[in-house]
What does this fold into?
Amino acid sequence: MRNALAVGALALVSAAGCLVLAPAASAAPDACVTSTLTTGSYEGVGTQVRKSSTSSCNDLNLTYADDKTVYANDGYAGRLYHTSTSSWKTCDAGYIWLTDGSYAVDSEVLCTDVNDNTLFTVASAANGGDTVHITH
It folds into this structure.
């Protein structure tokens, strides 16, 4: 019995000596970042924000809208600043008409595949001055 215990203990010590610990996983990007903006007028420029470089989101997602007119709806478009032309360009999605309220991430995408640190804004189709939350 003692020989069996001794052999078992020796096997455990030998196995522990061969154990290799895996390196800790590198930190994943933070979850999506949400910014509150005031919209510009049609094709205009409102609050300007830079796309987060630490976020796991690639798109500009509208997750909340509050139109400041009596109609409680408006069209919203993401606009990106292009340094090569020193100008603002409306994203391909154009204006998306929404009523006031909250929206799930990825349900109302204003711009897709936005590069980190890109300057962006949101324009309103009917008027400026609305409050929107952009998750990016």
User: Anything to note?
Assistant: The first strand starts at residue 34 and ends at 38. The radius of gyration is 26 Å. The first helix runs from residue 2 to 18.
